[in-house]
Write a structure and sequence with these properties.
The chain is α+β, with helices and mostly antiparallel strands. Helix content is about 25%, strand content about 30%. It contains 10 helices and 26 strands.
Length: about 525
């Protein structure tokens, strides 16, 4: 009799825990996921993508395509004490559950590569790829597979949102890293550097911070970091709709790709929406936690905003891979306002329209293509610099001597696997024909003279000075006229045996160029008439 009562008591206790304590634990984890920052490091992954015989690390792949071969392996520490299952699931729409063979499992603790790694081929019709990491549990693979197939809409939306939020985080990290580095070395330059960084990476800038004492500017600029990522109107309206709608209604979502390549997305709102979605189908066995994917080369570092649980309900970490669609390079715009001297050591090609060129490796093998006098094309490598606001010309390749004057340079490279054609720039290279006064120039002594010089690359003039004999050179100002002329005022004090010489210093040249100026000599006075002889 006592045994029967004990069994009944235990059965009742079990039911009580299943309907009260465990759901409460799951709910508390969902609340933490909604509010906590992503500052908890999680497990790592290593991912590469092969397409048409070319293999790229995951941080250089903005989008996957049908037929791509993915190699995915867990990157666990050597002293990892808990075994993790690694699962992948391809998705094909909110109203079209994926077939079972689109969901794969790897046991990351096994010795053989075929058992511990995932080797995937993107199937035709797939639109998203989502990854799961869960502590080893009997039946976990089947349970997660059933959840994905039973509610594909949640994971379609979650994958889109997490992928976009991960890209936003890459911009935030790039901004924070540059501000911190500058604050640690030369904080006095933050006043000029911070606005350029904010503009390049599309971040919110608290301009009031730049009015504080130099020592406190960096920390002020990084306060409330999650709010620095700017939202756009479209994404904000989606986030507001999800936040205020019932769960079932919020999950009626489309598979539209994320737009804007990192521009103005609701970094905070998206994360909260995903946490609410996952909370809708957490159960006493598993609780789903969103993870941001921080991609560096082939390494994917997962960041969590809630501590995972290794007891029931066990945490299932959910991470997104790039969407499956055509590579679409951004519409990069040139901000050039006048010809750029390419003979300088710090050549900047200002651009706008794609903050992800600074925070990811999507744009790769970037270079400008110029054409030399003989018709030969030359590629000069460039590097994206958020702190400069564009691409900076690398100096690891010599510029041929026959490149001078006005040259059109076309920015090009690859966006992922796709060739990328960027804007064109008007460059000028010093050298070629020397500067000379235009025909008919003759300076008049005793006044200022307007002088026009003709040559090549006026953008490459670093300085002009005037000298006469052994007198100290005097610096002159000048104006650029067109693509090959300079205009300046030259003061001529008076006549004399010593001629006037302009010393023109050009970027990239070791010595100035001397340009003699012709000066009119005063007419000789007539000889006085002698009185007649007496």
């Amino acid at each position: 009799m006592r045994t029967c009562h004990l069994r009944a008591y235990l059965l009742g206790l079990s039911r009580l825990l299943s309907v009260t304590v465990l759901p409460a634990l799951a709910f508390s984890q969902v609340q933490a996921a909604e509010s906590g920052p992503f500052d908890l490091p999680g497990p790592g992954l290593r991912v590469t993508v092969e397409r048409h015989g070319i293999t790229l690390p995951i941080d250089a792949v903005p989008a996957l395509a049908a037929g791509d071969q993915l190699s995915i392996q867990a990157d666990m520490p050597k002293d990892q004490g808990t075994n993790f299952l690694l699962l992948s699931a391809f998705l094909r729409g909110a109203t079209n559950p994926p077939p079972r063979d689109w969901i794969k499992t790897a046991e990351t603790w096994k010795r053989k590569d075929k058992d511990k790694n995932l080797s995937l081929k993107v199937p035709e019709g797939a639109k998203q790829l989502v990854l799961f990491l869960v502590p080893e549990t009997g039946g976990a693979s089947d349970a997660i597979s059933d959840t994905v197939r039973g509610r594909p809409g949640e994971f379609v939306r979650a994958t889109q949102a997490l992928n976009q939020a991960s890209l936003d985080r890459s911009r935030l990290d790039a901004f924070m890293g540059a501000i911190q580095a500058q604050g640690n070395t030369h904080p006095e330059f933050l006043r000029t550097l911070a606005p350029v960084l904010a503009r390049s990476l599309s971040m919110k800038l608290n301009e009031g911070c730049l009015d504080r004492v130099i020592a406190r500017q960096a920390s002020c600029l990084l306060e409330d970091r999650e709010s620095l990522v700017l939202p756009d109107m479209h994404s904000s309206s989606v986030a507001e709709t999800l936040a205020g709608a019932p769960t079932d209604l919020a999950l009626q979502l489309s598979t539209t790709r994320e737009a804007g390549y990192g521009y103005y997305t609701p970094y905070i709102g998206v994360v909260r929406d995903v946490a609410r979605m996952f909370g809708a189908f957490s159960n006493p066995q598993f609780n789903y936690l969103p993870a941001l994917s921080i991609r560096r080369s082939d390494n994917v570092a997962l960041l969590l905003n809630a501590a995972p649980s290794f007891q029931k309900p066990k945490s299932v970490l959910v991470a997104a891979m790039p969407s499956i669609e055509a590579d679409r390079p951004p519409q990069l715009r040139s901000l050039q306002q006048e010809p750029i001297c390419a003979s300088r050591q710090d050549v900047l090609l200002p651009v706008d329209g794609a903050p992800l060129i600074y925070s990811t490796s999507y744009a790769r093998n970037m270079a400008i293509r110029i054409t030399a006098a003989g018709g030969k094309t030359i590629d000069l490598p460039v590097e994206a610099r958020a702190d400069r606001g564009g691409y900076v010309l690398k100096r690891d390749r010599a510029i041929p001597a026959d490149v001078s004057g006005n040259v059109t340079a076309a920015l090009h490279g690859f966006w992922g696997f796709k060739q990328f054609q960027g804007p064109e720039f008007s460059l000028q290279f010093a050298g070629g024909e020397p500067w000379q006064p235009v025909d008919g120039t003759l300076l008049t002594p005793g006044r200022d003279n307007s002088v026009t010089l003709k040559g090549v690359a006026p953008a490459c003039i670093a300085g002009i000075s005037l000298s006469r004999g052994k007198s100290k050179p005097k610096a002159l100002s000048w104006e650029v006229r067109g693509d090959n002329m300079l205009s300046l005022n030259v003061p001529v004090a008076g006549g004399g045996p010593d001629g006037l010489v302009l010393q023109i210093k050009e970027y990239g040249a070791s010595e100035p160029v001397n340009v003699p100026l012709p000066v009119a000599q005063p007419a000789a006075l007539p000889a006085p008439e002698l009185p007649p002889a007496m």
